[in-house]
Amino acid sequence: MVILRSMKFIFFTLTLVASLVACSPPPQQASPPNIVFIMTDDHSIQTMSTYDQRFISTPHLDRIGKEGVIFRNSFVSNSICAPSRAVLLTGKHSHLNGQVDNFTRFDSSQVTFPKLLQQAGYATAMIGKWHLKSQPTGFDHWDILINQGHYYNPDFIENGVQKTTEGYVTDIITDKSMQWLDSQSGDKPFCLLVHHKATHRIWMPDTALLGEFDDIDFPLPDNFFDAYEGREAAAAHVMGIARDMDLVYDLKMLDEEGEIQTPYRKYYEGIYPRMNPQQQAAWDAYYQPIIEDFKQKGLTGDELAKWKYKRYMQDYLSCVRSVDNNVGRLLAYLDEKGLAENTVVVYTSDQGFYMGEHGWFDKRFMYEESLRTPLVMRFPKGFGQVGEVTHLVQNIDYAPTLLDLAGVAIPSSMQGLSLLPLLTHQDTAWREAIYYHYLEFPNEHGTKKHYGIRTDRYKLIHFYEDIDVWELFDLQTDPQEMHNLIAAPEHAERIVQLKTELAKLQAAYGEPAIR
Question: Least CB-packed of 65, 151, 246, 453 within 10 Å?
């Protein structure tokens, strides 16, 4: 049975939609719209109430979608921090922009959307997490965290000068963003990238939010104790909550007696002193009773795993709360300054994250929790688009979309598509499959290199190099991706079709086929 529309139609969209986009400008504005692009790190769609209301309410993040557009099927092309950021800037897959892992230095001489906006007369700024090793280019002002940055009293590099800023990082990035906006004269449109450290490991909450989620009993995901049957690559992972989540580094069980010795304890011992005495006092008042209670319980096995999961959720969600509060501050600023009417606001994350599904934290795999991202956009007054988009969109599309919104020509080198036709032409031809390729191996998490294709229903993944394993999932009948159907006879024809489409996607995106 044929499950996909014709390949001719699919690749018509990949090769010709760019010209369609160029002929479909957004509604005319009195002046080019301002752009505020907010991106967090590792924020799962499970913990944004626009998408999932089980764990937390995020009213300020939700507001962007309610007043604009919610993208229900937003994905990344490589679920890991630095590569995802390079994709955002260049509109190109990792194999073409060169940022294939977290260790490579980004080639900042490439064409990026901030450079093109700057050339078109925009004032441009980048504030927060950069994580690309090279110096930012295409920005009139940049103020970036060093490497991953710290949650407390972080070091920034402001236009080449290193400075330490007292406070909590999510508040600081928001403060710096509003300060830069205050410095604008109004004679130029602006593009501001607000890149938060949160919700990246090791999930250190603001002291003002400690304990906010302590009374919530989070239900374990159904597949928390996944045995990974039929999924050899998943079984080789090193990111399980039960086995790999560090009691001290991740969960803050730094006991004074030194009885809780863990592989990463020394790293947390290096982070803790960054807090000032007032911060440490509030931190200790909260965590010391938890440490004492934990030691008294002497948990092991499944009970220890469940305890870890609860503590993980409490800290992670507290970081989400801080993000939501600060997005609220920024939205209120735009309202108060009269900027909201002509400003595009985008919120997304550099990738998704596991909240205990498959027993995991982290990202990397092409499975749904790390592949999906939140994506909401609010447009200038008069744009007229409010609602939801269910088409398959990807982070390669961000750069073309922002350029299109600004009325700037989209370079042919960019592989993504402007999302505007989805908002202005409901019958727009669009891609029916996305391509994914994870390239960082070996790494401490043990995630094998893999690439794959996802349609609206099926996902085909190939793990390769030191392994040769294929996986097929039917997302309609198996949304948790527990049953690998690659050997099922009834899917043989479908697998051939998906492999054919996958090879054509690789060719269309300029990546040699991998055997």
Answer: 246
Cβ-count burial of 346 within 10 angstroms (0-12 exposed, 13-18 middle, 19+ buried)? Answer: buried
CA–CA gap between residue 218 and residue 54 (Å, rounded): 9
37 - beta bridge partners?
Answer: 193, 346
Q: Specify burial of residue 463 (Cβ count, 10 A radius: 0-12, 13-18, 19+).
A: buried
Mutual angle of helices 7-22 and 492-508, in 10-degree steps: 30
Phi-psi region of 228 (alpha: psi -120 to 50; beta: other; left: phi over 0): left
pTM: 0.94
Instruction: Give me 295's structure tokens.
Output: 């030691």
Pick the CATH number of 31-203+313-428 from 1.20.1070.10, 3.40.720.10, 3.40.50.150, 3.90.1720.10: 3.40.720.10
194: its two tokens: 């607000």
Average pLDDT over residues 94-123: 97
Q: What is the token pair recorded at 8?
A: 């001719």
Q: What is the bridge-based pairing of β-strands 190-195 and 343-349?
A: unpaired
**How far out from the chain centre does Cα 34 lie?**
23
Report d(CA 313, CA 44) in Å as an integer: 12
> CB 430: neighbour CB atoms within 10 A?
18
Say what the pLDDT of residue 426 is.
63
Q: How confident is the model at residue 219 (pLDDT cuts 50, 70, 90)?
A: very high
Contact criterion met (CB below 8 Å) for 197 and 147: no
> Is the preceding omega at residue 199 within 30 degrees of 0, hence cis?
yes
pLDDT tens track for 364-387: 999 999 999 999 999 998 887 779
Tell me the longest C-alpha to C-alpha distance in the chain.
68
| Residues ≥6 apart with Cβ < 8 Å to 455 | 3, 4, 392, 432, 433, 498
**Helix H or strand E segment including 232:** helix 232-235
- Give the start-to-end residue ranges of the domains of the chain: 31-203+313-428, 214-312
CB neighbours of residue 145 within 10 Å = 23
Radius of gyration of the chain (CA): 23
Is it true that the peptide bond before 442 is cis, omega within 30 degrees of 0? yes
